[in-house]
Amino acid sequence: MADVEARRGASLRHLVLVLGDQLDATASAFDGCDPAHDAIWMAEVEEEATHVWSARARIALFLSAMRHFAEARRAEGWTVHYQRLERAGAASSLADELRQSIDRLRPASLRLTAPGDHRVLTSLRATAAAAGVPLEVCADRHFYASVREFAAHARGRRQLRLEYFYREQRRRHDVLMEDGRPVGGRWNFDEDNRNAFPSSGPGEVPHSPRFAPDTVSTEVLALVRERFGAHPGSLDEFYWPVTREQARQSLRSFVQERLTDFGRWQDALWPGTTGLWHSQLSAALNLKLLHPREVVDAAQSAWREGRVPLASAEGFVRQILGWREYVRGIYWTRMPDYGESNALAAQADLPRFYWTGEAPMVCLADALEQTLRHGYAHHIQRLMVIGLYALLFGVDPRQVHAWFLAIYVDAVEWVELPNVLGMSQFADGGLMASKPYIASGQYIRRMSGGAYCGRCRFDPAVRTGPKACPYTLLYWDFLLRHETMLAANPRTALQARNISRMSDAERATIRREADICRRAQS
User: Fold this and answer.
1) Distance CA 448, CA 461 (A)
2) CB atoms within 10 A of CB 508
3) Across the strands, what pairs with 182?
4) Domain range holding 283?
């Protein structure tokens, strides 16, 4: 007790803990703090790059953005206790690094904006308690909806559907509304959006800004190459925004150059392209270099000023105001049990080519290669190419989750885990999605104008035999494995009826060839 009292009387009042995905100088942890009495604490630790085998681009983005944030706060007069990876005696975990800093700095208290990772929150709370130092966890006002507000929305609901939550959000925050009704008389414009590319392709696509590495980023890239050289991915095209001003420039560029056609092409696929008309703002948002309110306001203003069509503005707003907030609510109201979800009892190991990009199908190889090179792929590549194959293959969803968390630069657990376990892998049994997002290779052919399939040795229209597309073969095998569940769901009953007419011989052939496919790719 005496030691605790000594700390409370120390000259350092609050030690403000800033994590790598909390790079917002106006975050709630700073409320009531000032550089004269308080200090900032940040730490780079190996555990955050190795608890999942993180890709080099993801590691570099976090470290570079953190170092830039620390520099900016020092320029404002803050004392920043920043623990670098290369520091002699550096601890391997956040908990150990914080424990050492508490012993050295003797703060009266700790302050922290609520983390986005259940594991980190649990660890830091335990560390503070063991050290006898008060830890105040401040609500994260980066989001439109608090966890309590989402919990109130979810109370009594057996299934949590985006549409109902999204409409509540629109009304509550008066976004794309007029006189209490949605502008245009509709809540969504899917009928106007989500087109497939013609066989001629997307044409000229406006590029998002690319930021050449400055001195800080160059130093980080060298560190990552040396220390994490065995990790997947590449650093050859590292161009992500790492400061708030760069993030704001990226937002302006998207609204001015790509938002107009975002809605129309948001689900389209094309080989060798990165991002297409997608915003590519997710990393900046998830690091909190951008606030979702300024992103939504920018899109809404562009529509009101007549610069973008309503269908594109609404489709984009739904991603930020709706989906992003929705998955966070699911994460924090369902963890930690949600992370163990496996409603389909999937047990297969993730195919090795997810880490190398050397998949036998052209579409999957292209999406994986792009992901490993840039640390990025847009949401349809993730859901309906990469995630779809893992779902049809029957991969343990926890392995799929670990891969997605490791490989994408914008991956933080609160957003990635529900997207993968709930939306992509249907591991939560329908809490999020009303049906599994399953499709054969014909879907990919349609959404890409046949651009992949024309260069592939497989035919998406063939389900068995040497020309059978693995997506199509495994799609039919998925239907067979989960026939009872699919038949009971009104949204998949037609698919179940398609296999009810299948002969025993056809069923046996599909199952046998699917097993051969899995063994060959394991």
Assistant:
1) 15
2) 11
3) 177
4) 147-206+258-333
Q: What tens digit of pLDDT does each residue of 127-139 get?
A: 999 999 999 999 9
Which backbone phi and psi does 113 adopt, to 5 degrees? Answer: -70, 140
User: Torsion-angle region of residue 375: left (phi > 0), alpha (psi -120 to 50) or beta?
Assistant: left
Give the CATH number for residue 58: 3.40.50.620
DSSP state of 468: B
Answer for the pair 137, 38: CB distance below 8 angstroms, yes or no.
no
Q: Is residue 435 part of a domain?
A: yes
**The overall pTM is greater than 0.70:** yes
Residue that is written with structure tokens 């951008």 in the block = 290
Q: Per residue in 227-258, pLDDT tens? A: 999 999 999 999 999 999 999 999 999 999 99
124 and 7 in a common domain: yes
**167 CB-near residues (< 8 Å, 6+ apart):** 187
Residue 6's Cα: distance from chain center in Å?
43
> Quick check: 293 and 145 in contact, CB under 8 A?
no
| C-beta separation of 287 from 20 below 8 A | yes
Do 195 and 324 fall within a single domain? yes
Tokens read off for 127: 């560390």
Tell whether 129 and 78 lie within a shared domain.
yes
- 395 with 329, same domain: the answer is no
Our separate counts of H helices and E strands in the chain read 24, 7
